[in-house]
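Explain this record to help learners:
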Amino acid sequence: MPTYAVTGATGPFGRHAVEELLRRGTAPGDVVALVRDPARAADLAARGVVVREADYDRPETLEPALDGVDALLFVSGSAVGQRERQHGAVVEAARAAGVARVAYTSVLRADSTDLPVAPEHVATERLLAASGIPATLLRNGWYTENYAGLLGQAEATGSVSSATRGARVSPATRADLAAAAVSALLDEGTTGRTFELGGPAFTMDELAAAFSQVLGREVVHHDLTPAELGAALTGAGLDEGTAGFLVAVDVAAAGGALEVSTADLEELLGRPATPLADALRAARA
């Protein structure tokens, strides 16, 4: 049987992916959980999953961790500004270890978007192409959880703000995107394909209406200019860099950067993507 490895296996995305592999009947001994801290994966090891140390910032750990791996779900790192270097180490280790296939979690329209995270993903896609390893590109939209994280603010204040100018966004839950990634990992027929992955689209006004439904109180959306949003974010205590990043995401979203059809996601899932209201109720629970 093939051996499947998942990087960042104790992170919120990687954990979902490992669980999905097991749920689909992959033998635990054929699943390799690649983690920075093996102690955090003790529960997986107890279930028979192979746990190996693999730290993007310690390249010497990567090739041994990938020994004997047939297909790798390469979950992108979270250290913005460091990912090209980190990801390059993973790609080189996968090539040296003889990994046969890689599925990489990129970002929507990585090669044409204005999203500020895109350049590092484009660089990684190019590194994979240059490596010669057959690859599947999983270009993920924003996580629904990014928006569900506003539930507390919405409940406390009755409002949410953005600079999206009425544009639609197509986030999907981590669980859906991880399940789609596992489908791609298990199916050799996806090799060489690029999937643009997003869930049901909504505007921020529609998000506020969904918040109202879930919270049982009125929530309104305020559409701000980028400057107004930046001032509001720094006024709420965010540093300039984080506020600037979030404003840049909204500006890109206003141009359509986060809207995409559900077709690719639902092809990989084999079912409809999770509706927004269901995801919000689960987050609130």
